[in-house]
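Need tokens for this chain, all 246 residues.
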Amino acid sequence: FIKFWDVASGRLLGQVSLADTPNSLTFSSDGTKLAVASNLEVTSIDPVARQIGASIREAGGDSLSFSSDGSHVYVNSAGSIKIVDPIAGRVTLTFPEPFALVPTMSVSSDGSVISVTYESPESVEGFALSPDGTKIVTYTLDRSVDTGSGADNVRLATWDARTGKYVSEVKFSGDLIHTIRFSPEGNLLGIGNRNEIWIWDTRNWQVKEKLTGHTGEIVDLAFAIQGAKLLSASSDGTVRVWSLEE
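Here are the structure tokens for all 246 residues:
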């Protein structure tokens, strides 16, 4: 079920029954649409009438996000990102394309390019849509790499959100990632890296700050609307509020 509540009074307003247990849900920016992802499908719901608008069976997944104009939904589905048109009730694009080749550069410490190889994109494990809706950042963990060695085992790739074209990527040594989130301005990206929060500057893709204090894995992040604060939820049973002001 999806249950609708009056926040001020805590009163249950109603509920909608789904065919499968929901994994994730999100509202459009204007609040007029609700999208729900389950393993079987993506369902669009009118939150006022509390009626199901469409169910797209081939787009089931574990996380999703509305485009900035509310016309499309992005879903992390079976190792890929699917763009769903809820009005038409169909998937319009899937990426990365498993048979496409994308350039991957190896760069030396002085910034010079050592080599360029062309590889098929790997599957993705999670994503974040930029606030302006122009790009998607995905992460992929290479579990064949020994994380204790300090080797770069996480690929943080950027894609054009409209065309699904590969743009660029950075690699870093990570441990266990459950969530990534953009700040409202899009200049920062928060990543829960096991029990640490890494704040990335998206202008140069450098780690700006590491926030420590949680004793359990970071399971979700949320930036405040003004972007000066960050909330983190952890498996240690706590929610923390962080100041990001200089």
